[in-house]
Records
---
Amino acid sequence: MANNNNRCRTVYAFAREMYPKTVKGDIAYGTAGFRTRAIDLDYVMYRMGLLAVLRARVKRAVIGVMITASHNPEPDNGVKLVDPMGEMLEQSWEKWATKIANVTDDKLEHVINDIIKECGIENMNDRPEIVVGKDTRPSSPSLAKAVIDGVLAMGGKPIDYGIVTTPQLHYFVVCKNTHRAYGEPTEEGYYRKLITAFKKVRGNEFNNGNYTNSIMYDGANGVGAKKVKYLKEGLAGSLNIAMYNDEIIGSGKLNYLCGADFVKSQQKFPTGLPQTPNLRCCSVDGDADRLVYYYLDENKKFHLMDGDKIATLIAGYLKEILEKTGLKLNLGLVQTAYANGASTDYITKELKVPVACVATGVKHLHHKAVEYDIGVYFEANGHGTVVFKQSAKDKIKNTYQTNNLSPEQKDATLRLINIIDIINETVGDAISDMLLVETILHDKGWDIRQWEAAYTDLPNKLLKVTVQDRTVVTTTDAERKCVTPKGLQEEIDRIVSKYPKGRCFVRPSGTEDVLRVYTEAATKEECDKLGIEVAKVVYDLAGGIGNPPLVE
Ligand code: 16G
Ligand code: MG
């Protein structure tokens, strides 16, 4: 205990001298960690360094800390903690994260002691490794130093990976915790794993049918641009990646008029890419964990292939491959309420893959997906991956070793084995997802229009309503129904029933101080009308402030 006291005093002295709490109010733990203006984050970062070491001691494993504000503007920043198997910090610890981030400097020691006591941490003398990564924001280096100082003050061993994508950081954490069974915990190891598997599946025929091996890539002027350069070299022509929006550090252009979030939320072609018709284009976000595809047709009309389209492509393909292998493994798709109704219909009715719906946020999707032998999960915004149970992977590998497979079965099983290595199972990964989509399109011999033709999205709209207090809205049924305020859901149901194929839900944002209103209907006009009608009711019943609802 004496040692603990010394440790806490070091932590406190450091906090007071270097990272005093500069913001009076509290910062809230959002959907995926803390995120706000970078200038307000020094002390939060230091404290997350402290917390990461405590978490590592409890889990007796390596923990990750990623500094990024993803698709948000360049002056913002944020931090997320990565648990031992690549998951987001366990939800039960969000309360500790919130407490330690918001306590005054003089009480920091108490919170640390509370965590030590409640979690039964006995050994404060070991040096658990904490893996730290950051995106390309100009504020990231000094914030990373704050995290590292926190780790050191608490007696941990920081491993600084410098600028990496969020999914690379998750990968490093899992590699370390599986003692390299998942892969080499280095950037080279990451590229090698993905590229080797990709090239094996692609073989020597780089083109196939209507598929051509060239893609336009929008790097959002961020880490996704920087990292794809290495990938591109390794792919050596098997896939030609034409880079756009690759001004990396300090250009002020991060996510500006480009990137996956811009393309998806504005439903617009990004700046900087050639507007040649029918070219297959893709965009990643500011930390390269989201991916969307799109193209312009001959009439310059924009066509989007979002997370739902990617999810259905992958789930449908995995189902086909599984059938060819003859393996009996259960495959499921996890979506959120944002998934377009047409995608859910298509996947359940045509592809006959079971679908589960969970609340927004990767932590919820990932959690559900691991229940299946093979779980595909995607948010409509382009964040997702595939996870395989260890028993499923073993079964696939063992089957490949048996002698009683037909040539077709053998071929499909080997393909599946390689596909597992293209996928970053640790979290949604734009780069790995892109390689997977390219692999599937290549195998099917499809151009982007053939992919798009699988089903047609229902027109949809996302509106924001600003209210006094967004916590007045609470939801149930994976955010598809409002519980409070009283009467709101009845009003929504009444309005929705007037619109053919109408669907709508309202939820408080986890990252912004607003309510979100999502609507879908048979035509664009009806969808827009439905959105405004519901937004007005929300404004009235949930305490709207400022101007009545505006289209986002
Ligand atoms: C976070 C989530 C993202 C989700 C978004 C919703 C992670 C890694 N990121 O960015 O998945 O779609 O929040 O934001 O979980 P909202 O709550 O403001 O609508
Ligand atoms: Mg992101």
---
Amino acid sequence: MASKRIAPSVLAADFANLQRDIEMINKSEADWFHIDIMDGVFVPNISFGMPVLRDIAKHANKTIDVHLMIVDPDRYIKTFADLGSDVLTVHYEACTHLHRTLQAIKAEGMKAGVAINPHTNVSLLEDVINDIDLVCIMSVNPGFGGQSFIENTYKKVKQLREIITANNADTLIEIDGGVTNKNAKQLVDAGADVLVAGSFVFKSTNPTQTIQELKEIINE
Ligand code: DX5
Ligand code: ZN
């Protein structure tokens, strides 16, 4: 079993000290950069856009995992590929032709991810599971950092793990929202591969050490 990953969410970084926070992630035991793009339409918040991602990508030396919380994401697939995204995740709820969108993401050389809101059942992904590189299970309603973890997530992770195994897929399961040292172990035990952590990392007194602590918890 490949080692479990931690993806700090840059949304919780200090944007006035972004380079400092990126270098912190570079030097830490974190595996990926998680980048939240919000359009104020799909979710009730606007985060940051292309110029900021371009500058993050200039400094980041790890996998760039982009989470698009935007309507009609097909419009920007090529743009995000050109900006240096390694994984591009779209929302199930924002895609009318999800299968086509996944192929378009892969055609641009990126890994294709699908995020599902807390109310969306994992079984809806069964018919495309072999086309998905990563499923991001939202463990909060998307739009803001710092929200509390929804406990029903464990059940969803187990159900998705069963679907992946039954279909002999190699899809990764990512968890996004409210991840802390209190739920990390139970999430990987349920079958998660990648844990996104924003506030828990950046609001801690020593983010580097917090990342290390999470890594130890999930790989013990
Ligand atoms: C929420 C975002 C998350 C967020 C997680 O819409 O998708 O990635 O940054 O932040 P925390 O870990 O603070 O819940
Ligand atoms: Zn996210």
